Every structure is written in structure tokens, then in C-alpha cells.
Amino acid sequence: MIKFEHVGLRYGVGPEVLSDVNFSLEPGSFHFLNGPSGAGKTSLMSLMYLGRKSTRGRVTMFGQSINDMPQEGLAKLRQKIGVVFQEFRLLPHLSAFDNVALPLRIIGTPEREIMSNVNELLEWVGLGDYKQSLPLTLSGGQQQRIAVARAVIARPKLLLADEPTGNLDDEMGFRLMNLFEQLNTMGTTIVIATHSQAIMEKFGHPRMMLGHGHLNIEDPKKNWLQRTMDGVF
Question: Can you list the residues of the chain whose pLDDT is less than 70?
């Protein structure tokens, strides 16, 4: 699904914010992305959702090298990716319903199907009574739930979420995590950037740990198994 080989990223003539990043994510996998502020999480996410290209190294998405891919090809790949941005990026002139419906309209989904799917998802995230509300009339937590609903409505092949539970209480945060889990069981590859130790511990997926521009992947389940095996033998 995603493969980074010796990837580096710098802005302008400054130092690299990502250095020799190497990893490969299999289709249907689920990873958390974690690291201190300034470690490069948002920069790494921008490379994965094709918002920018690396300054060195090789990036492969959906089996295709994107290093020299023209904008038309990148645009087609982006249609397979759902993104929850930390700043939401909702369209202020569209209602909650129309913001969530936008990905389905872009791919030509029949309006009757859009009506059913969007209404059901807005009810599920607790915003069934706010379908016609404009984003700026809603709280930060409500806007965040709209952003999540918009990202998942078309069942993307890859879902990238930057702190998707940051403005939510624990109950709604865990509810949205269960939605991501359901998407994952249907085949969506998921990467969630989060600082929440509670969420990472509860759901136990492998962690992509960023520090000083470098990345390592840790799997709590494998670590637990190794400790268990060491204790037995």
C-alpha cells in the first residue's frame, strides 16, 4: 500500500525534517503514528496523502512510484485516500450534509444513495440534528466529527487521520475509533497520528514512532509475545 525508501524532506534550504525514512505498510494494516511535537508527523502525513513530494528517496503508493508522476496521476490516486486534517478543512459555505456528501458526489454516486449513506453516518456520529448547519456555527468537536465522516464516507483504500479525537470527549473518541476499526476490517489501510496513550494502549496496533526526523515501527503485540516466550524458554 505504501513504501518509503530512504525518504528525506526539507522545506526550502533548511535542515531535513525527515531523514532516511524507510517503511512499508501492507494493505489492510492499521498503524498509529506517534512522536513529540515537531518530530515531523504532519510532514510525513502530507507525503502519504500526496500533498507534497519528498526532496529525496523513493515513495511508492498503491504499487506505483509517485516521484515523477504528473499531477493528473496524483489526482487519481488521491481519490483512493480519505484524510482527516487537524485543522478540519471543511468548506464553510457548505452544510454539514454537503461537506460529508462531497467525496461521493465527486465520484458520481447516485443522489438517492448519497442521501441514505450521509444521513446514516451523521446520525452515527451524533450530528443527525445538524445536517443543514454551516461549519462555523458548530463547535470544534462537531466540526471534527464532520471531518471524520467526510473522510470515511466513500470507504477509501487508505485513511490518514491527524489527531482525529483531539477535540472529543473519551466516549466519542472511542466511538470514532470503533468506526475506524470497522473500516479496517473491510480492508481500509489506516494510519492515525495521535498523542493519546489511552487510545494506543486500548487498541494495540503497531506504532510508527517519529523522533528527530527518523522513524521506527514498534508492535506492542509482538513485544508482549517476545517477553512471554522469553519467560517460557
Answer: 221-233
